[in-house]
Amino acid sequence: MTEDEFRPTNFIRQIVEKDLRLDQHTLVHTRFPPEPNGYLHIGHAKAICLNFGIAKDYQGQCNLRFDDTNPLQENIEFVESIKRDVEWLRVGWNGKICYASDYFNKLYQYAVELISKGLAYVDELSSEQIREYRGSLMLPGKDSPYRNRSVQENLLLFENMRNGHFNEGNACLRAKINMASPFMVMRDPVLYRIKFAQHYRTGHKWCIYPMYDFTHCISDALEGITHSFCTLEFQDNRRLYDWVLDNITIACHPRQYEFSRLNLEYTVMSKRKLNQLVKEKYVEGWDDPRMPTLSGLRRRGYTADSIREFCKRIGVTKQENYIEMTALESCIREDLSKNAPHAMAVIEPVRVIIENIDIGEEMLLTLPNHPNKPEMGNRKVLFSRDIYIDRADFREKAKKQYKRLVLGKEVRLRHAYVIKATRIKKDSLGRIIIIFCSYEAATLSRNPLDGRKVPGVIHWVSAAHALPAEIRLYDHLFNVPNPTAERDFITTMNSSSLVIKHGFVEPSLVEAKPEQAYQFEREGYFCSDSLYSSVDHLVFNRTVTLRNTWSKSGVKTSLK
Ligand code: ATP
Ligand code: MG
User: Fold this and answer.
1) Of 558 and 116, more confident
2) d(CA 185, CA 500)
3) What is the pLDDT averaged over residues 259-271?
4) Probe residue for ligand 1, chosen from 31, 39, 44, 68 as the CB with the greatest number of ligand atoms within 8 Å
5) Which residues of 127-157 are buried (b: 16+ CB within 10 A; e: fewer)?
6) Over the stretch 116-157, which tens digit does the pLDDT of each residue have?
7) What is the pLDDT, as a whole number, of residue 557?
8) Which residues pair with 368 in a beta bridge?
9) What is the pLDDT of residue 517?
10) Quick one: which H or E segment has residue 389?
């Protein structure tokens, strides 16, 4: 089955299909409405794939809309990063952008309409008083003493709010609904508040800003959205969504449906928490390869295909749950095992001298770029007397199960010859610094002529030709599956989430393009770091290990 033939089905798609079948709508129109107050994360990818996926599969439209009504938190850097990430995901975005801030005039007019109908009033209680008067789930709220002002007075006061005649916090506009409603959101919610702040798009034009619940439904209706999908925490807000649209003069009334948000183990997804990690420098930035942001995942080596595949696999339901990190890792591993060219890199190098090769002699070997895909071509790699192998691939003594190089025994060098370790040299601390070997010339990519079996294979690079490289090994950012459940999530951070090694890579990797993935033979999937890597200083990020190194219980199992 090709990707296009496989169409996920879920309760949301069933609603859309039914509406189209019953001619409720001729065209489906969705939207993805991020607030530009941070970078997009993998949870947003779920919402993007849902909204843009539906538009694509049912020949409809999906708007990218910036929900930008919070001037203090929002800026153009976030807008640009969101555009970049949505584009990168290749979900069929047509490049058009909508902004809630483009609707500020209209939103103001709708607020005036509600006031004129006696459905909104200017309240002068302080925010603490408003909270106090709101009551609780057990207790009904109390009416504000300002609730029964006349329409005329409210119109004048709202205009005064707009003209800057009130200080911040001294007045706000509230819907007049029901202070005893069992739904807290319906207890006269605030529609507008005063903020003397510069907005990244409208500058100082406004000193009052509409709240999310008021803005969101009207923006949806103005854009002709048919289905407005959001996460479950907005379930109760649906009543307010409908109340606003029922009480203003607007032709369109989109329907809101809720689905469960994506929670991923061993990371956090709230923008506030991600922002804290960046601001307090627990990570190097929003695009730190350990972050669950799309820019972090991209820098780490995740492909857009693997993220879309992940979103397809997790599906869309109303069930709150945690997805294991291994589910995301499997998606990138499957993609890269098919598509990433192979290369050799030694991460923890130890020197090997093959004494029966002459000093200065070079042998040019032809290595396949992918063992199962001849169409990916070959590359030339030099082999010589001096090579590096990984320290973990040699032991002085070992049990039979150890299929690597042991003193006095043989091993095959990947795509090259069989070598035998003859003696070793140690430094004064007893650490091995050179392994002396001999090689057998007749074993290039074939078994020894006398039929001897050499089962182990290890990787290598030629010391004279290999290039030094900084290799960054990443692990979970947190030590516990659900850091948010802790009192202070920061205390659960994994202090070894980044380990930097200094190894060697084969020379062809000098041409590695940023974010281009490779399978480093026997080591894992790696990509060149888009920020730090240069021709003079190669830096590679480990995207993911070759196999899952985490058991079900969350205990790390040894790789080798
Ligand atoms: P946060 O709670 O982290 O601040 P948010 O929901 O406020 O996130 P927005 O920028 O408003 O962030 O989100 C844009 C859209 O993405 C919303 O429709 C929201 O429901 C959806 N979304 C955000 N986080 C997730 C998630 N973890 N899983 C699925 N959808 C999400
Ligand atoms: Mg939000």
Assistant:
1) 116
2) 49
3) 96
4) 44
5) eeebeebbbeeeeebeebebeebeeeebeeb
6) 999 999 999 999 999 999 999 999 999 999 999 999 999 999
7) 46
8) 378
9) 95
10) strand 386-390
Number of H helices, E strands in the chain: 12, 29
Question: Architecture of 345-459 per CATH?
Answer: Beta Barrel (2.40)
Classify residue 405 as exposed, middle or buried by CB count within 10 Å of its CB (0-12, 13-18, 19+). buried
Residue 559 has pLDDT above 60, yes or no: no
| CATH code for residues 3-259 | 3.40.50.620
Does ligand 1 have an atom closer than 6 angstroms to the CB of 44? yes
CATH number of 271-341+469-556: 2.40.240.10
Q: What is the DSSP code (8-state) at residue 199?
A: B
Do residues 392 and 560 make contact, with C-beta atoms less than 8 angstroms apart? yes
486 is catalytic: no
**What is the predicted pLDDT for the residue at 558?**
44
Asked whether the domain spanning 345-459 has the same topology as the one spanning 271-341+469-556, the reply is yes
Q: Report the atom number in ligand 1 closest to the C-alpha of 33.
A: 14
Which ligand is located closest to the Cα atom of residue 66?
A: 1
Amino acid symbol at 117 = K
d(CA 133, CA 165): 25
Mean pLDDT within 160-170:
98
CB 435 within 8 A of CB 351: yes
Could you tell me which of 5, 10, 1 has the C-alpha nearest to residue 311? Answer: 10
Is the per-residue pLDDT at 470 higher than 80?
yes
- Ligand 1 within 6 A of CB of 36: no
State both tokens at 445. 């990519």
Which tens digits make up the pLDDT trace of 479-523? 999 999 999 999 999 999 999 999 999 999 999 999 999 999 999
Phi and psi for 432 in degrees, rounded to 5? -70, 130
Average of per-residue pLDDT across 393-412: 96
**Chain segment 330-368, per-residue pLDDT in tens:** 999 999 999 999 999 999 999 999 999 999 999 999 999
**Whether this model's pTM surpasses 0.70:** yes
Cα–Cα distance for residue pair 15/11, rounded to 1 Å: 6
Domain positions in the chain are 3-259, 271-341+469-556, 345-459
Q: What is the dihedral of CA 85, 90, 96, 102, to 10 degrees?
A: -40
Reference 141, options 191, 176, 193; nearest CA is 176
Q: Is 308 a catalytic residue?
A: no
Q: Does residue 43 have its Cβ closer than 6 Å to ligand 1?
A: yes
In the block, tokens 């590679």 appear at 540
Q: CA–CA separation, 82 vs 295, rounded Å?
A: 9
CA dist 237 and 343 (Å) reads 53
- The residue type of 99 is Y
pLDDT tens-digit readout, 16-44:
999 999 988 889 999 999 999 999 999 99
